[in-house]
Amino acid sequence: MSQIVLELNHLSCGYDSHPIVQDLSLHLRAGDIGCLLGPSGCGKTTTLRSIAGFEPVTAGEIRLQGEVMSSPGQRVPPEQRRIGMVFQDYALFPHLTVAENIAFGISKHPERRRIVSELLELVNLDRLGKRYPHELSGGQQQRVALARALAPEPALLLLDEPFSNLDGDLRRRLSAEVRDILKTRGISALLVTHDQNEAFAVCDQVGVLRDGRLQQWDTPFNLYHEPATPFVASFIGQGYFIRGQLLTPDTVQTELGVLRGDRAYQLPPGSAVDVLLRPDDIVGQASSPLTATITGKVFLGATTLYRLQLPTGSTVETLFPSHDDHPLGEVLGISVAADHLVIFPAQGSVNVSAQLPLEQMLEEGDSD
């Protein structure tokens, strides 16, 4: 089993005696890339700054390679933690060349030139070592910041919203490149972001935070298919909750018919439940007696995401191949193909939207 590089044990921290992060526990294995994911103000950056040593902790502890870095009344200085940091604004020195920026943290290292040369090649900037930051693109500046953080060979690399200043296409390409670089070097890293696509593309383990509390620390696959809380289910991916009633430990009566899951749910029969349905759980079936009306659509390239209104007024979504085009207002036959059901005790209103991508990308004619 891989060595544990980072441990947060019942960590609480904040600013000016104001608690922000509470009772947070997780661990990161050597060579893994982790992520703290959540909406603005949930405590992601506060946690990262506490790990780096910039902020004290009020309870719990932070361990790096088994050694306590922070606990109440104890804090190892940031420069002694063997932690590299890539900031949101890159924080490059404008008066230093690319090579000099990378060498900044290893100025007394006897093999400084070799290390800088290797890192320039690693980040595909081997011909740009003599340039200055203002002569580089945003993506190139990000690579310089990454190389500079890697130069001292840190035990852990922290990245604070590292791609937020880049446009969408470059962001996607660079996030993949950064993952490859970190994996090539075997670097353990912890990333902070509010973008789940970025988190899933880069990271092995993702922690979803809400109001300073960790909801779930898991693989991207499990966060999507096995969400531990309704918040994780709603924050990760797309989908809608529909109300149902548990008939037996593995079957639920819903407005879409009786749905059978692949497990026994730990609720008494007769319980009101909310069933999460993802777009890939709803499939078109022309012969089905169950129908829904298309009220919105978003073209995604290979697929089209349709918002469907059921006869009861509830909403679900489905994905069709993009060449299978349907107009707004068309009535489709549908069925549910979801043996793996995600179910929670009923909360709030009957039809709670897990995410509303169509609210953000409405086409003209959408009825909502």
From TrEMBL:
GO MF annotation, one: ATP binding
PROSITE patterns: ABC_TRANSPORTER_1, ABC_TRANSPORTER_2
Keywords linked to the UniProt accession: ATP-binding, Cell membrane, Ion transport, Iron, Iron transport, Membrane, Nucleotide-binding, Transport
UniProt source species: Halopseudomonas formosensis
Name the record gives this protein: ABC transporter ATP-binding protein
InterPro entries assigned to the protein according to its UniProt record, in alphabetical order: AAA+_ATPase (IPR003593), ABC_SmlMolc_Importer (IPR050093), ABC_transporter-like_ATP-bd (IPR003439), ABC_transporter-like_CS (IPR017871), ABC_transpr_FbpC (IPR015853), Mo/tungstate-bd_C_term_dom (IPR008995), P-loop_NTPase (IPR027417), Transp-assoc_OB_typ2 (IPR013611)
Domain ABC transporter: 6-236
Kinase is among the record's keywords: no
Listed PANTHER family: SPERMIDINE/PUTRESCINE IMPORT ATP-BINDING PROTEIN POTA, SPERMIDINE_PUTRESCINE IMPORT ATP-BINDING PROTEIN POTA
Lineage: Bacteria, Pseudomonadati, Pseudomonadota, Gammaproteobacteria, Pseudomonadales
